[in-house]
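Blackboard transcription, Thursday session:
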Amino acid sequence: MTRPARRFTVGAKALALAAALFTSAGAAGAQKGAPERTGWVRYVTQKRVYLDRGAADGLAIQQTVSLLRGAAKVASCQIEMLAAHAAVCRGSGAAIGDRFDLPAVGPRAPAPAPPARPLAVPEDDETLARYERALADAPHVKVDFVSKAGADLPPRIWVGVDASLYSEPGSPDRYAYEAIDAEIRNIPIGSGSLRFDTAFSALRRQTTTDPRFRPSVESMFYLWEAEITRRQNDDRTVFAIGRLWPWHLPGLPMLDGAQLGRRNASGTIEGGVYGGAIPSALTLSPIEGSWAGGLYAAATQGGRRAPMFARQEVRVGVRDSATVGVVREAEAVAQVWSRPLALGAGYRFRHAPLVDGGPVLELAQGDVRFTPTSSVRARAQLRYLGVAAESQPLLRGEVQTMSGGTYGAFDLSWDAFQRFGIGLLASGHHDASSGRDQADAGMELRSPGLFGDVGGMAAGASAGEGWMRTRTAFVQIMARTSRLRIFGRVGGGTTQFAEPVLTPLTVELGGNLQIEGVLTPWLRIVARSLVRTPIVLQGVIPQDRLYGVVSRIDLVGTY
Amino acid sequence: MKWGGVVVAAALLAVAVGPGGALAAPPVVPRPPKQTTSAAPAAAAKCASCHLETGWSPARFDHEQTGFPLRELHARLPCASCHRQDFKARIADTCSGCHRDRHRGELGLHCEGCHDEKSWKSSLFGPDTHRRTSFPLSGKHAVIPCRECHGDLRDMTFSRAPVACIGCHRGDYDAATLRSIDHVAAGFDANCQACHNTWKFSPARFEAHDVCFILSSGPHRPIRCAQCHSSVVSVPVTGTCTSGTSRCISCHAHECARSDQRHANVMGYSCTDRKCFECHQRTPP
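(Written on the board underneath:)
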């Protein structure tokens, strides 16, 4: 019996989902009855393939194994380690689930072993004690596993070069930019536990019209992070200095300064201080910002016998604001994981004496994730954003927005079958500054494995009500090979302003395409494009040809 | 971006024919067949499920069995970077359990809705996802960079961007005096969407104008205010159709002598702009 081919024709599979499910069931049934002379790839790394057959099945050291996917040979590898029923094979290009045929007669196949029989169950403690003594007296040296890799994160360099073009054919307006993004992580400094991390973006923008919102500067450099840290697993005293992306400081994502903390022996409790300048929100310039300082604490609870894992972070501090003076803040986050539940909550209080009569709740949030089975996942989120003490940075022409809103979302995902899943999405939002409400609900049908190893597809629709009425629908496909991934999505929708007056429908069509290719194990290219066009514009067919195009190419190198 | 297509084509060609490596882990992989029950003692079977007799390392483990498949960058990490104590101690299985939050915690604790395991830089949040916020993206809003509206680069909370059009387009409202008509003097309020669409400011939809002269359909729909009105600065929108500033002849070059002959039998005719549009609202001459 042979395994059914995985490369289905797209047309046949797209005809009916029921056919896919039937095929899936058939595949599963066929797999159960797979012949004994077939082995499987259980795990892969970049250079090695792990097989579930070994010397007892006829494999030998240095033997070349051909790996098959469906009927096609996709890779080969050479066995370098061999156990009785497992083997490590050197090679690349394979994927989990690939199979290989065992030789009819192994080159060094051992004689058929008699059927294995389970050991007899010891009947008394004396027998067990005798076994234990025998093991202890056995003349061999026991070894413990010590990972050569250790627990430290490996160094990593990520560089992305992208060019984007926003254009509207038929219009002289053009907007384009090129950027280089880079992340350099965990670079050791010396032989100790000091590490260097940095992330930055260099951006050049070209526009044929006056920039409407951003500063009218063509070239910008954003330094997201540049810090020297001492925070390895065994470090009791931890610190960071530079432009920080701080640890355990909820509500403080960027700081030009230092963070110093001390951990307990088990690393489950940490407390410390922080201080420095807050960079400018609009340019990240360190000159225009204000300062901040305070205390923090973090703790985790868990262990082998603990029914849950939990962590908490608390920050108490003050910061200086150019517009409202000193602002006192207290923020905390608590999270608990205990299957099937994951809970999270956080809040932020602030007191700015110049504008607040007392402590003000600026942020409150709660998250719940419920996964009763491996195929069902439900998630709910609530978020309250109170009135801000100071306005967000003013973009060009932007009106100050200080009041927040309330947001709630609920997602339900059910992978009903091996190749078919359904998702329900709902959300609601109340904007406090404008008083406007908006709600959205939708459904998605997903079959990521509809075409077997080649890919799958999904489709969905949604409806929104509130100050803007929306109706959308989409179909998307995902295709993949060993070196290419393609994602395509087409969709359309209607929008209609319901406030202050109900306006006629605007109907838009659009789609996006993303192609990702792996050039080498450390270099890949991602090209993506988004196109949108209105076919009805507020109730009438537009006389001008209108559409917007966003194209972007990323050349991403990762070391 | 002529070179963009060349780069893409060259890259795809290189991918197709070159000896490039494999993607680290496809999003969905078929599960391998379950191992048959071993007759070996339980402890030995447990070791053998990860280790080989040739040495403790390299070890193998199908992490997908845990419900947390290791993909992309996660697949490169040493086990102990997440499992600090041992493999039996419970740990977090959401992003926020291990990672710092650029968004100040304001976007919740689950990052996977917008990010994947390749890089924080690549976000899955696009125009279609934006409909779940208070501001569904339509028109040009779907094809401009996020930073054009969400300005705080420090924390990227994306939370307090204005919802009302005027929140971002106050400058355009004020500049309309120079570009077309003075919206304040003309009495237009700040509810931009009543007249304008999200693709282009012009032509605008001005339904109230149909009472006087139909612009919502027909050949006059695409014309701009200043093409007919010599001045709209002092024309409040009252619905009385008495602006006194509209000029049909700015587009329709009638000679009164010729027009007088054609309308000799029309009651109340006179060669004035107002008389033109009183009769020719729907069937322009």
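Lecturer's comment: Confidence is low (pLDDT under 50) at residues 6-42 of chain B.
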